[in-house]
């Protein structure tokens, strides 16, 4: 998502918006003029009034980059705060579009298009105004979405009158109807509802009561719990804990450079990770409590609270503020340092060396400075780096990020944030040697250009099956392929060895990794290496992440926008998230179980509605979701004893919602029940659509897609060849682009087919 210019720097302006309720035929839409600097939360209020909604359900906005906006805590998946996002920042120019969905059961999808952005004229910009529209909206809450509303309006047009039932009880009597649809239908007759009538002035009068909240503008990046997909859009991450909820702003700013650089490096590397399993929170928290150095840092933070008054932190945790006295050099005074070792039980880091109480007391008594107290060094360093201890002048106090030892969630979040930050810091830039060699510009240029092999090695270990090891030397050697033998390769190998040793060593201390065997040339004389002497600098041995380490790396991946889905986390997710995540599952059994669990949480009809709605759109991310829809819809139909899901598909197949219609008609074709008029949504359209996301990834990815398929069934290449001359007729908005990419991809395999596709691409371009 690109950062936009702040609306605070713009002259007062207004946005002319067209908001259309998708799926309605004839169409229902409103043209609205609103101040450019209103919050999206205010735009929600305006849309509610303009379409007659009751604001009784959840809602969310989604822009064309996949960024979601909703009230904080309401949506249930990671999203930007809609009250902090200015309309001008999200939709800055004419032609920009976004979606607004109301009620995540009925899924009322409104398409918002910016028709004009212009300076505010006299009297404009103080309130929202409706300048046009089409079709009236009845009271449509809880009717079952556009299909339920369409059915109701058809009954009204046909003159069907619901039959009321007179109920008498205790001398009173009233009328009841058989369900909400009949009740609403009766109300339409009572009010003389005219579906073709629309009065913009009436809507404007209603909008006068809508309070418009203004915001100065936002600078948007990748929000917590979301990732940037290979299609270029943002998507919510399944199971993503996101950025630690209690991470201090200073901590995030301090790591911005490392994480930004890492995100750029991995984007170039086109990293894609399989879905992994992560233990539950309680199990991970138990593992954190078994990490001696980290828990020593936590205990040291609580010890630094001292005996002062207790206060509440911004996160709601209670802590003492008395603090401990420091020397002018920023060290604990010797007496206090000895107390810290005993009272915070810092000796548990190395019980063999410091575990005997009498021996420990004797050794500590001889030390005259905290700087010489090695048992204190590591906990003190970690406590400062993790934000568990804050130094204020000559006192050390408990830090804002200090977790409660008994709070599983807080303890795990603090650990994940600490290990993620350490991994980013250690893995972005190769370490240069100390001394005169480190200052050589050629050496710095070489380090900057070297691939991020150590971090990519961590990602490889992240995706390995539980318990499997990675051969370090083999991995790094493969990564250096293409680098010619000579001084440059030797230097890069030496830098990688040092980076690996430091990174793996820190991860071991965090309980995040394990190593076995192998010695490296760490510390070898640089001159000797360049002369061809000394041992091979690349490290040997094996490496693997622990389950705890995988969870910490997952936290960092979320921060830098790398897809890292988690198996077993989609039960409560919406269908868009489910469909977007399934391609990353390495195991078909895991993917099938994820679908089964997702279906178990909802009815067959609701599942069908959600999946079909998630197929809307014409962009690569939409096409990726449609590719996964058949496997989910097939599972839905297997559980659909009443046939309601099939009814949903038949209604959707003849609707006008692009993508939804195609997915539904395609599924009906698969089961041998083609929908009426489904020729408009033929196989040609789906073939172009299915190739779109792979065409955007490049020629090789598209060629691999064409050549995959079941051994005893048709491959995409065969289907494309069969219909190559007619694919341009599909009416797909990206037909020309896709057909040109297909021609390039198949040329090495079938030149004649490539020529046919090139001709079809020309026709598709001419037909626009």
Which helices and strands occur, and which strands form pairs?
Elements lengths: L12 E9 L6 E8 L4 H12 L7 E5 L4 E3 L9 E2 L5 H4 L6 E6 L5 E12 L9 E6 L10 H13 L7 E5 L2 E5 L3 H12 L8 H8 L18 E3 L5 E3 L12 H6 L1 H14 L11 H8 L3 H13 L5 E3 L5 E3 L3 E2 L8 H10 L7 H4 L2 H10 L7 H12 L3 E4 L2 E4 L9 H20 L13 H9 L3 H10 L7 E2 H8 L7 H23 L3 E4 L9 H5 L11 E4 L1 H14 L14 H7 L6 H13 L3 H10 L6 H19 L5 H10 L6 H11 L12 H15 L1 H9 L8 H8 L11 H12 L4 H16 L2
Parallel strand pairs: 4-5
Antiparallel strand pairs: 1-2, 1-7, 2-8, 3-4, 3-6, 6-7, 9-10, 11-12, 13-14, 15-17, 16-17, 18-20, 19-20
Helix pairs in contact: 3-4, 8-14, 9-13, 14-18, 14-20, 23-24, 23-25, 24-27, 25-26, 27-28, 27-30, 28-30, 30-31
Question: TL;DR of this structure?
Answer:
The longest helix has 23 residues, at 487-509.
Could you name the key traits of this structure?
alpha+beta; disordered N terminus; globular; three-stranded antiparallel sheet; eight-stranded mixed sheet
Report the C-alpha radius of gyration, rounded.
31 Å
CA distance, first residue to last residue:
29 Å
| Helical content (DSSP H or I, runs of 4+) | 40-55%
Oligomeric state of shown chains: single chain
Structural class: alpha+beta
Nearest-integer average pLDDT: 79
Number of strands: 20
Strand content: 5-15%
By DSSP (H or I, 4+ residues per run), the number of helices equals 31
Can you characterise this structure?
There is one protein chain. This protein is α+β, with helices and mostly antiparallel strands. Helix content is 45%, strand content 12%. The protein contains 31 helices and 20 strands. The strands form 6 sheets. Strands 5-4-3-6-7-1-2-8 form an 8-stranded mixed β-sheet. A 3-stranded antiparallel β-sheet has the order 15-17-16. The longest helix has 23 residues, at 487-509. The protein is globular, with a radius of gyration of 31 Å.
